[in-house]
């Protein structure tokens, strides 16, 4: 299966990606069929030099059945080569990590109370079941 995906290059903490068409079995930074463009995430979104695409070759590979990955689909959607993919649902993404942990701690006691209530009911049933078993043992000792 052919994929349009990003292949990472650049140096440590300075990534630059190539947009390539490759077989899905090939490694991410390994062998590819053709380079179709580049993506530099360090540049501001307004700059032209951030993304470079060979639109005619991308259209050709899409017509041949190559499937873009989610990130490449977003890049192509921004350049109107394909329809913009639907946004994912990650509502906690914009919340800082420390606040996420606080909210998780606040929600866990509420969930804990709900979870404890059903657990207490079976314990009571087990005690009732244990009570008759203890009574015959007492009778056996007599």
Major sheet summary line: 5 strands, mixed
Order of helices and strands: EEEEHEHH
Provide the low-confidence segments as ranges: none
Quick one: overall form?
elongated
Main-sheet strand order equals: 4-3-2-1-5
Total beta strand runs: 5
Helicity range of the residues?
40-55%
Determine Rg (CA atoms, Å). Answer: 29 Å
**Class derived from helix and strand content:** alpha+beta
Mean pLDDT: 80
User: How many DSSP H or I helices?
Assistant: 3
What's the quaternary structure here?
single chain
What is the terminal separation in angstroms? 78 Å
SSE arrangement:
Layout: E1 2-11, E2 14-23, E3 34-39, E4 51-53, H1 55-63, E5 67-68, H2 70-78, H3 97-141
Parallel strand pairs: 1-5
Antiparallel strand pairs: 1-2, 2-3, 3-4
What labels would you give this structure?
single chain, 142 residues, alpha+beta, five-stranded mixed β-sheet, 3 helices, 5 strands
The gist of it:
About 45% of the residues lie in helices and about 20% in strands.
Provide an overview of this structure.
- This protein has 142 residues and is an alpha+beta fold.
- The protein contains 3 helices and 5 strands; from the N terminus they run E-E-E-E-H-E-H-H.
- Helix content is 44%, strand content 22%.
- The longest helix has 45 residues, at 97-141.
- The radius of gyration is 29 Å and the shape is elongated.
- The mean pLDDT is 80.
């Amino acid at each position: 299966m052919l994929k349009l995906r990003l292949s990472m290059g650049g140096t440590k903490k300075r990534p630059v990606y190539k947009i390539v068409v490759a077989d899905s079995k090939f490694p991410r930074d390994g062998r590819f069929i053709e380079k179709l463009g580049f993506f530099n995430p360090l540049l501001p979104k307004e700059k032209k030099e951030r993304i470079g695409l060979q639109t005619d070759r991308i259209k050709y590979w899409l017509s041949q059945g190559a499937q873009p990955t989610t990130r490449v689909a977003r890049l192509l959607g921004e350049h109107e080569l394909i329809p913009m993919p639907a946004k994912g649902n990650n509502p906690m993404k914009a919340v800082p990590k420390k606040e996420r942990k606080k909210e998780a701690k606040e929600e866990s006691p509420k969930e804990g109370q709900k979870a404890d209530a059903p657990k207490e009911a079976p314990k009571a049933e087990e005690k009732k079941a244990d009570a008759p078993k203890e009574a015959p043992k007492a009778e056996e000792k007599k």
